[in-house]
Structure formats: C-alpha cells, structure tokens
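Encode chain A's predicted structure.
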Amino acid sequence: MPAKHATSSVFAKRLKEARVRSCLTQEQLGINAGIDEFSASARINQYERGKHLPHLGMGQRLARALHVPTSFLYEEDDLLAALLVAAARLTRSRKKVLLANAETLSQSATSRIKKPGNV
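Encoded structure for chain A:
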C-alpha cells in the first residue's frame, strides 16, 4: 500500500503543478481530457488530493491536455520532472543533442567516481 500512496501523492502534486502552470481550472482540465463536464471538476479534485489515482490511459489524456509528457506526472524527483518538461519541448534533433550531452556528463561523472583516488 505505501507504494500506491507515494505514487498517488506524486501524481497529485505534479497534476496540480501542471494545471496551475497551464492556467486551467479543474473543470477545464477534466473536460479537455475527455471527462464528462458534470463530473470533470470533482474527478480532477480527487486526483489532485491524491484520493484516487487514475488509470494510465487517463493519465495519458491528462498529460496531453496539459502539454507535458506522461512520465512527468509520475516522476518523484523534482529536477528530473523539470527536465522531462523541458526536453519534451525540444525538436527531435535537439533531443538527440541533449541525450548525447547527458550521456557524456553521466560517463564523466562515473569515471571520476571509479578513479582510485576518488574513493
């Protein structure tokens, strides 16, 4: 049960963060994600309070309505979540450059850790 609670609280936090950044009401977001207008506000409210965690398909629809990657809504690390949003805005060619740079940074960090003097 703790894992589900952690996931729902992360989802709740990210959903509200993205909705507020998009200047949408709970009702507007729900309707944009395909939820019936009469229950849209209440359902988004329950998701944002962490009372319910939507199934993946609804998470994908909410992400599309918010113009964020679906993975953003489930990412626990704040910095990585911000990187996901920033990377999603890039063109495919710039994403490749970002990935290459990230891999270079990762390799150089790993090699510094493995050096005998850096234990």
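Helices lie at 2-21, 26-32, 40-49, 56-66, 70-74, 78-88, 92-114.
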